[in-house]
Write a structure and sequence with these properties.
alpha+beta, single chain, Endonuclease, Chain A, 116 residues
């Protein structure tokens, strides 16, 4: 299992390679969504959260909070990759997961006429 630090480093590398300006541990508060996002490009509204027990994420990201995040994602108001440490076994799996997510974001943004 990857640590919080390892997972976030892999995800940040992938997002930076895709052209996003990722800041670490960004406080986010909109409506019912209030937590520190592990990596976030505020201008593009794209980021990631590597959910780990080590970081206390399971206490902060309640099922209700995750539902609110998923609703914002569905609306296209936010593009946030939520990855649970228990669902990813290896670095390559996490890289592939990030790549698929970033490809989907790029498709949605192109469809909406938004660059990057």
């Amino acid at each position: 299992m990857l640590t919080e630090h390892e997972g976030c480093a892999i995800l940040k590398e992938a997002f930076l390679a895709a052209g996003y300006d990722i800041a670490d541990n960004v406080p986010f508060s909109e409506g019912n969504i209030q937590f520190n996002i592990d990596g976030f490009d505020a201008a593009a509204r794209v980021g990631f959260e590597f959910i780990t027990t080590e970081a206390g994420d399971r206490n902060e990201l309640t099922p209700e909070m995750i539902a609110a995040v998923e609703k914002a994602i569905e609306k296209g108001a936010l593009f946030l990759l939520l990855v649970d440490e228990e669902e990813i076994d290896a670095e390559d799996d996490l890289r592939n997961h990030a790549r698929r997510f970033l490809d989907r974001v790029a498709e949605r943004r192109r469809g909406a006429g938004v660059s990057r």
